[in-house]
Amino acid sequence: MTNTAQNDILLEVKNLKMHFPITKGIVIQRTVGAVKAVDGLNFFIRRGETLGLVGESGCGKSTTGRSILQLYKPTAGQVIFKGEELTKMKRGHLRAMRRQMQIIFQDPYASLNPRMTVGAIIGEPLEIHHLAAGKEKRERVQQLLRQVGLNPYFVNRYPHEFSGGQRQRIGVARALAVNPEFIVCDEPISALDVSIQAQIINLLEELQGEYSLTYLFIAHDLSVVRHISDRVAVMYLGKIVELANRDELYENPQHPYTQALLSAVPIPDPVVEERRQRIILQGDVPSPVNPPKGCNFVTRCPRAMDICHEKEPPFRDMGGDHYTACWLYE
Are strands 30-46 and 9-24 parallel, antiparallel or unpaired? Predict the structure, then answer.
């Protein structure tokens, strides 16, 4: 990688692991296992781009986003943001860094404090980071409400007075309040109606163009991810199995899991839909407490070989910024 390309990287994740301990006992608790929610991720995000992170529910997508922001303290690995290692950073320094990293939560109903007004919710980050107070804070909050398409005079209303789409706009305004460079969008549209989803996606794209934002966009809707992302990472049971540029991944998927996911996306053309082959995966996703030996996907893979049961496949460069973890290409 050239120095120019290296300087272009905003966030780099190296061997990130997030294991939640399983304890037993009431008085004396002992660890008897671990939920391997995230198990050795490696990727980077360039400035101004959107990396889509897709996979089935429970594969570790949201945990990845929260571990990057240090909302969860990672079990192992490195998170390097603007050249600084976050996992070893002291609390005071990390608090200052958090101004540059924000998150939009999945549930617009649970992520807003019902006892606080909209003005207080959006204005809280401004107070925490000592960016504005009094009249200046109120004007900034009203400006943010306008930017996300809401009436600036809604500042004294409470979350229960808004629809789901409006609440998510409030969440976007709160994330924007401190002028961040990087935002984790944790399935920001999954709880919304389809018509509202398009509005929120368009809003995020407009804000990205205006403020040169960098997104980690977490979702399980492959059509939405294709629309908004520059590159896409496919996750299965705590690991990334394929990573490529958006068009390359959708037109030339290499990993059997990616191929199965894409075969499930409906195409609005009856001729094409009738001809293409639907890949039905057998069985259920294994438990992250006890993942399979070798490749995590081996228990459901229609093309599994003997080596897949024995050794974990390396994350192989297929050329053209396309990576996949599969023994088929060795």
Answer: antiparallel
Are 104 and 175 contacting, i.e. CB atoms less than 8 angstroms apart? Answer: yes
Specify whether the CB–CB gap between 300 and 281 falls below 8 A. yes
Let me know: does 240 contact 43? Beta carbons within 8 Å: yes
The answer to whether the CB of 288 falls within 8 A of the CB of 238 is yes
6: helix, strand or coil: helix
The 10s digit of each residue's pLDDT in 201-246 is: 999 999 999 999 999 999 988 888 999 999 999 999 999 999 999 9
Provide the residue count of the chain.
Answer: 330
Domain ranges of the chain: 3-329
Place of tokens 């949201």: 62
Q: Partners of 23 in the beta sheet?
A: 31
Strand 323-324 with 239-245, pairing: antiparallel
pLDDT 10s digits, 73-123:
999 999 999 999 999 999 889 988 989 999 999 888 899 999 999 999 999
Long-range contacts, 147-152 (Cβ 8 Å, 24+): 147/173, 147/176, 147/207, 148/172, 148/173, 148/176, 148/203, 149/199, 149/203
- Alpha-carbon torsion (82, 85, 86, 89), positive or negative: negative
Radius of gyration of the chain (CA): 21
**3-329 is a CATH 3.40.50.300 domain:** yes
Structure pTM? 0.90
| Residues contacting residue 78 through CB under 8 Å, at least 6 positions apart | 12, 13, 14, 15, 16, 85, 87
